[in-house]
Amino acid sequence: MADIAQLGNRIELVSMDKHFHDITLGLYEQPAADGVSEYLVHSYAHKDGTAERIQFIMRAMQELGGVVATPEGSLRFACGNSHRVACKRLFIEASKLPSEALPVPRPLAVHDKKAACEMTAQSLDGGVYRVSAESNGEDIRRRVLAIAGGLRKLGEMAESNAGDEASFACGTAHDALVGMLLVRAPNVRAVLREEDAAASGGVLAAPSAQTV
Amino acid sequence: MAELSDIGNEFIRQEIEEYLERPEEIERNIELFARVRPAMQAIAAALIEGEDGEVDRLTKLALADGIEALEIMDDGLIAGMGIVGIKFREAMIFVPEVLACARAMKAGMKYIEPILSDSGVEPIAKVLMGTVKGDLHDIGKNLCIMMLRGSGFEVVDLGVDTSEDEFIDAIEEHKATILGMSALLTTTMPNMGKTIEALIDADVRDDVFVMVGGAPVTQEFADDMGADGYGKDALSCVSLAKKLAAQTA
Amino acid sequence: MVIQPAPIKEMTSRQRVLAALRREPVDRTPVCNPTSVATVELMDLVDAPFPHANRDPAAMARLAATSYTELGFDSVMPVFSIVQESSALGCSMQWEQKDNWPTVRMNEPIWKDLDDIRIPNDFLTHPDMVCVLDAIRLLRKELGDDVAIIGKTMGPWTLGYHCFGVEPFLLMSLDDPGRTMACLERMKEATVQFGLAQIDAGVDALTVPDHATGDLVSGEYYKRFLMDMHSEFVETIPVPLILHICGRTVDRMDYIARTGMAAFHFDSKNEPAESMEIVSDRISLIGNINNPETLFSKNPEDVRKEVIANLEAGVPLIGPECAIPLQTRIENLMEIPKTVRQWHNEHVHVH
User: Fold this and answer.
1) In C120-218, where does DSSP find H-type helix?
2) How many CA atoms lie within 13 A of B192 on its CB side?
3) What are the chain B neighbours of A193 within 8 Å (beta carbons)?
């Protein structure tokens, strides 16, 4: 049995890897000597080829999210920041790929169905990304702000400027990571709820016998 | 402002007096039952007692007397179910009693539903309802469906043990506004998050509002899973569905 | 609380569990889960994934053993789910996949009325029943007498849900309590038969899940329909019995304590100290580490806090509140026996 202490803290799980015998994959977080988190993919499965499958996933995480391999065989972000939440997402996305796939970073753009247009995340200096839409309008502006908010939540990024920007605390650009997170950004529930609350503030709800 | 003594039906007066504690609920139910006609109070009382035979009889009688189907549903059946929901929430009655009341509601709705469908009144919205993969419990889901239909929603019941692909296919086929998922087991709750993942992967997440519920589910869990809303019981499910539907209006 | 040095010499896990079930002194509080501690990672470790591990005795035994050999619990319990009897009775089954539990298709009930109830002659030789019995024998052979082997036999209320369907069964309980009682009397034969067979196979104790849970029915329901029947089981099934009911159960714990059962496996919705006060040394409590929020979602430090709360309340057997979510982290599970050992090293026993 693997020594649990050496694996670190399991922060994410793929319970059935559909591309490799339904093995279970765990993403573990370990603090390095400099205090920055390093990540390891591990499985308790003993099937032939398990090590190779894990190696593919870790390579895919490098391609898709820009993490780098350490001499000890873990992964970390070269910027020195942990980016834990984003790394969990990165692990899940990498695990969805078959080992024959060629992982390619996603573009900094996504089609937003609600706005019916393309949203782009432009990489500015200092790890800052500005979300913009190819169309205009009040509803579209709301979606831009929501998606920027979603990006901030998913990437643990800060708000800057007029709410349409998201910035990494490390001050470093992570284009591959942002491209990956941008796909999820339009659907982050908490961001949407804040958006809805702001839109409905001050509106009196009509009383109803059916309201509970 | 109405008072308890303005309610003609003694059973309803006793129910309000004995089981309702929150002032706003007492006030709302007194206003409601003081306003509705005695025949509706009688239907509500029979429903609260779980007397499905009596609800059947009284509903037929009310329709024969020319009372509108919508009035019977709102002022008789749903009004009665409101009291049931409060008693259940406060653990004064349990699931067997709620099931008996739901059975009584069904007895009345079997006359009401066809009339409402034929009337050409547009449903508020279309809702897909299913219990998540691996979970075969459907009491909560069925109660929600009944209440949603009774409140004017069109509901497609996807049944139990609904896979991610079945949810996705249903969204594409039915073009619903809302997807409701329930789970009664802590072991199946994670499948709500997996389903939402799958909806994102299939690029249909933006096509529906997702609401979740079930005994072990919490608001925090719902938020973490990426749902649009959480309803802790059948009545909350209806008010949440109305709120979500209003966002598309 | 009077602290005295512990004169009890070190016990085996089996001795510890059995002593705690009899409310006798122990060297330290035992750690056990009378339901299941199977996880997807443990399945990988011993190559015993669901559903195979629910239907093949060798895989079932391999996976069950990990609770002792890998996690450090004092018991093993090979019946991970609650479906074997229902499968043998003829229910429509869904065996699912690695990361999900097998279930009974309760929306396809096999019984509608009292006269439909039948325990087949080949009930105990059904493959899913034989799987359990063989797994128990394998575990006893592999692990000897060092660890407590806990079996599981479903109570009649749970069988009622599975075979009649939950809604029809609950409606029957309201519409015709007499008929419901008669149905329970017939179904309990399955409980007893399977329990006795597992004793022959070598179990030390039996979990009896009987889901008259507070989420569905009142405490008075338990008293009315099940209390006497559970007392009867104590007479007819000659090993310590552990009743398991999920959900909020403080309103029925006094009734449960009257049954004479050895232990009650209780849910985290019930405060340990309050529960201990209600049962008042008439029955051992087992529990009650929260599954979905603590074991599944939080960290070892949070597990530790709940273990300590239970130890300080005097709960005599510590463990998760129910069958754990299959994705639970191994390190969270290992924290339970680790914390119990550390706590005992820092404290000494009360006798």
Assistant:
1) 127-143, 156-164, 166-175, 177-201
2) 32
3) 223, 228
CB atoms within 10 A of CB B12: 26
Q: Map residue A45 onto helix, strand or coil.
A: coil
Show residues of chain B in contact with C268, CB under 8 Å: none
Q: Flag whether pLDDT at A205 surpasses 50.
A: no
Count A/C contacts: CB-CB distance under 8 Å: 44
**With 50 as the cut, is the pLDDT of residue A212 above it?**
no
Under a CB-based contact definition with an 8 Å cutoff, are residues C89 and C110 in contact? yes
**Assembly ipTM:** 0.90
Domain locations in chain B as residue ranges: 4-118, 126-246
Distance between start and end Cα atoms, chain C: 10
Domain B126-246 has CATH 3.30.300.130: no
Tell me, what's the pLDDT at C132?
A: 98
Cβ–Cβ below 8 Å for C100 and B160: no
- CATH code linked to domain B4-118: 1.10.1240.10
The one-letter amino acid at B53: G
Query: Quick check: A65 and A182 in contact, CB under 8 A?
Result: no
Q: Which residues pair with A27 in a beta bridge?
A: A12, A41
pLDDT in tens, B63-119: 999 999 889 988 999 889 889 888 887 889 998 998 899 899 889 989 988 887 777
Query: Could you tell me which of B144, B126, B133, B158 has the C-alpha nearest to residue B214?
Result: B144
Q: CA A186, CA B200: separation in Å to the nearest integer?
A: 10
Contact C291 B186 (CB under 8 A): yes
What pLDDT was estimated at residue C5?
54
